[in-house]
Amino acid sequence: MRADVNGLSWRKSSYSNGEGGNCVEVSDDLRGIVPVRDTKRGGAGPVLVFPFAAWAPFIQAVKAQA
User: Fold this and answer.
1) Where are the beta strands (DSSP E) in the chain?
2) Is the pTM value of this prediction over 0.90?
């Protein structure tokens, strides 16, 4: 799956640690897909794109483990 991720607004995941280590950012700008990137890499790193249908169950599973 490919998506144009230029110009998206990003937010840091609430599950990222606050010390600048294991952090991810997600964008809610694109309908039906969720782009994800490593905060440490910012706009210079790769972006993984997930269909929302796969992302929602993943987030539910993460919350269940917290």
Assistant:
1) 11-12, 24-26, 33-38, 47-51
2) no
**Distance, CA of 41 to CA of 52 (rounded, Å):** 23
pLDDT in tens, 16-60: 766 656 688 899 999 999 999 888 776 677 889 999 999 989 889
**How far apart (Å, rounded) are the C-alpha atoms in residues 44 and 20?**
16
Token pair listed for 28 = 């809610």
The span from the first CA to the last CA of the chain, in angstroms, equals 29
Say what the pLDDT of residue 52 is: 92
Separation of alpha carbons 56 and 53, rounded Å? 6
Using H for helix, E for strand and C for coil, what is the string for 43-54?
HHCCEEEEEHHH
Dist CA 37 CA 11 (whole Å): 10
